[in-house]
Structures are given as C-alpha cells and as structure tokens.
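Worked problem 6 (solution included).
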Amino acid sequence: MSNIKTRTGIVFHPDYLKHETGAHPERKERLLSIIAHLKETGMMEKLELTEPRSASPEEIMYIHSKEYIEKARRYSELEMNLDLDTVLSRNSYDAALRAAGGAITAVDTVLNKLDSSFALVRPPGHHATPDRGMGFCIFNNIAIAARHTQKSGKKRVLIVDWDVHHGNGTQDSFYDDPSVLYFSTHQYPHYPGTGWLDEVGTGKGEGYNINVPLPAGTDDSGFKAAFEEILVPAALEFRPDIVLVSAGQDACNNDGLAQMRMSVEGFSVLASIVKSIANKNCAGKVAAVLEGGYDLDLLARSVAAVLEVFMGKEVEEQPYEVSPKIRARLDEVKKIQHEFWRL
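Solution. The predicted structure is:
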C-alpha cells in the first residue's frame, strides 16, 4: 500500500530548555536529542514547525487550583523543589506555562490546519494533579489541552496515555467526566502506584477511565494487544471528536526508569492504531504531547517513529502472541470494562 501524505507539525520553543534541572533524568538534553535527530534524518524539513504561546493562568485553571498555581510560581521564583522528584529553577514556572501552551497550540494547529501535531514540550505533565505537582510535572499539559479542545467546540476527547507510568493527574482531572475517555497502559506496580484495573471512574464518569496495568517485562505484543483488543472497540464506541496522546517513550527496553521491553518500532504500531481511530472518527485529527522517555537515543528515535506514522507511513500488520501472564491481565481488564463497552 502506498503511503498517504498528511500534514504533520511539531510544536517547540527554546524556552523549554530554560527549565534547568541539572543531572536530573528529565533534562533539557531530551529535547535537544529529538531536535538533532529530526534534523539529521531530514525529517525536520518535512514537518511544519509552530512556535507555541504561553498558556494564561486562566487556562491553567481549567485543571489546577488558583492556590496551587501560585505555589508553583512562588516555588519557581525561590528555586524550591515541589517534591523530591520535581525540580524547579527560576525559569521553570514560565517554561511550564509555555509547555501547557504548547499542548494547546498543538490542538489549535490540528483543529485549524494540520492533520496531526506533536508538542515537544517540557516539563511533562500527566502526573500533575489539580492541586499538586509531582513526578517531574508542574502543570498537566494534556488535561489543559483537553479542556481547551472542549472550549473550542469539540465535545468528546479521547486521551491515550502510553507513558510507562500511570497518568494519575490526568485520571484525577476527569474521573467523574463522561466527556473525556482516558485510556492508559503502564507498568504496574510502579510509580506513582495508581492505575489499577478497577479504577474505572465515578458518578457519570464511571466507565470512562480504562487502565491496563501491565507487568514488568511486557514487550510490543502486550501493548499491541491492549490497544487492539481494549482501546479500539471502546474508542470506536465513544466516537471522539479529537484524539490526544500522552506520548511518553519510556516503555522502551533499556530506558532506565522502568522495566518494559518495547522496541522503537513498537511505538510505530501504537501510533498507527491511534491514527486509525482518529481516521475513523475525527478526520484523522490527533495531537500528541511529550511526556517521559529518558534514554536520549531511544527517545529521539521513538518520537521520530511516531511522527513518521503521523506523516503517512504505513505499518505492516504483524501477528502477535502474548504470554499467558499478560493474557490473563488483559482478560481481567476486559471483564471489568465489559460492563461499560462492547469489548
């Protein structure tokens, strides 16, 4: 099958490099490695680069409390860390505003002119809860972007989180909300300790939170099975108006902060599945926002693999077989989610 070319963009700003974290795993070299790889491979000239604006405090308040936003600003000014993991320097608050703005910008470009976009931002966001920053995250970029999408007139938002860590902050933001379907694959048990399969939402949001907690050592086949057997049928039933991706590439084998065994090519498969959902429901409109990924080479190549799919590269269908342990876990998730979706 011939490749179908689509208009794909990236969102980036040098201010993201001003979030100084020293020798921390979440460091500016992550973005520098991605940009360098895109230039070296010739991909950069095929992508539409958009400069993001900063999110306003009012837009941050779509998700976060006014008190927490002020705390983040003050701690950044004083160069005080939010917690043991979450380092703040003098420019971190401004970088975080622009990271949230980057996610918003990615959504706007997809809604207005592009088919797909990837916001190459930092600090990341999916661990940030409405009133707390944690896990390297200050503001929840993807959650803010989801609310911005809805204020732009799109009612139903699908968030796919393939970061190796559970996006507890994103889950908290929409736990009682049936207008946002949150789907997460993640290593379990692992940081932050949330994301068990019985966390399905509450009230009107019950069933709109799908967690697939996978054991350490899961490879491409386990992720592909989770996406094809659980995400796809639920998403097609949900019928999203846009698809957002919390794109952490830290499930890669040898990433360093987890024990999963995904390959770089595995991210092409996940991106292809997500793109097919978008093609069937919302004219291919998909916006990804960078989360984790800490091996510089694996991160750069994984992001490029996702972008290639967004740009139209076809991924060949490959049969897969999962281990009995992973099959049992997927069946557990299906049994719970079958109450809400036709899986």
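Discussion: Residues 92-112 form the longest helix (21 residues).
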